[in-house]
Amino acid sequence: MLKNIKLILPIMFLSIGLFGCQQNNNEKVDNEPSNTQTLETKAEVIEEDFVYRLVIENAEYSKNEPIKIYAELEYTGDKEEIEIFHSASPFSFPMVETTRNYEIGYGMNEPLLSTKLIKGEPLREEYRGSGGYGSQDKKEYIEFMKQIMNQEFPKGHYVVNGIADFGVIANEETGQKKKYKIKAKVEFSVNDSN
Predict the structure, then answer these.
(1) How many whole angstroms separate alpha carbon 67 and alpha carbon 156?
(2) What is the DSSP letter of 138?
(3) Which of 95, 78, 103, 106 is nearest to 165 (CA)?
(4) Per residue in 22-67, pLDDT tens?
(5) 38-191 has which CATH code?
(6) Residue 36, exposed/middle/buried by CB under 10 A (0-12, 13-18, 19+)?
(7) pLDDT tens digit sequence for 111-134
(8) What is the largest CA-CA distance in the chain?
(9) Residues near 93 by Cβ (< 8 Å), separated by ≥ 6?
(10) Separation of first and last alpha carbons in the chain
(11) Are 166 and 86 a contacting pair, CB within 8 Å?
(12) Beta-carbon count within 10 A of 3 CB
């Protein structure tokens, strides 16, 4: 009888453990916004003498409707103007589609360019598209990315993880540079109908 109990107990604990794991694997991850959750469509981050804004014009779009996102960088310091150094653009718009958990990259050329910011006049740039895929990616992912690359967003919940990435010369005499990487987040959803 004691042998049977010694054999039954480990099997029972193993069954409970596997059942517990099974339950956790079937739980839906709460990446989707609830119907009562308000989507953040505007974000503003102040870092020292710079204000970074990330804006999406609507919280909800219809399937394949053009998505309007833009970023702004404003200088608010003591000088009349300041020169910033950046890649092809100081702005990038990487996203995550949370329903499918797909990352939508934002590639960019990386020359070293400069732009003058005039105090109180925001530099503004609109989102122009993103995404990409490789030959080893799954068919569903490739089809999704092809739509994104054509700026035809499928139904889903999207989070834009915007970045303003640039540098300035912090000390004119020494040429010492200071790097900024200011981040903000906005989100939107795409539905089947208007």
Answers:
(1) 13
(2) -
(3) 106
(4) 333 333 333 444 444 688 999 999 999 999 999 999 999 998 788 9
(5) 2.60.40.10
(6) exposed
(7) 889 999 999 999 999 998 888 888
(8) 89
(9) 69, 71, 106, 127, 130, 160, 162
(10) 69
(11) yes
(12) 7
Q: Give the C-alpha separation, 105 to 125, whole Å.
A: 17
189: three-class secondary structure by DSSP? strand
All structural domains of the chain with their residue ranges: 38-191
- Dist. CA 149–CA 168, nearest whole Å: 32
pTM of the model: 0.76
CA gyration radius, the chain: 24
- Written as six digits, the tokens of 154 are 């499928």
Question: 167: which 2 tokens?
Answer: 């540098």
CA–CA separation, 84 vs 75, rounded Å?
10
Residue 191: what residue type?
N
Pull the structure tokens for residue 55. Answer: 């804006």
Give Cβ neighbours of residue 107 (< 8 Å, ≥ 6 apart). 130, 132
DSSP 3-state of 7 = helix
- Return the amino acid letter for 159: V
SS3 content of the chain, % helix, strand, coil (to 5): 20, 40, 40
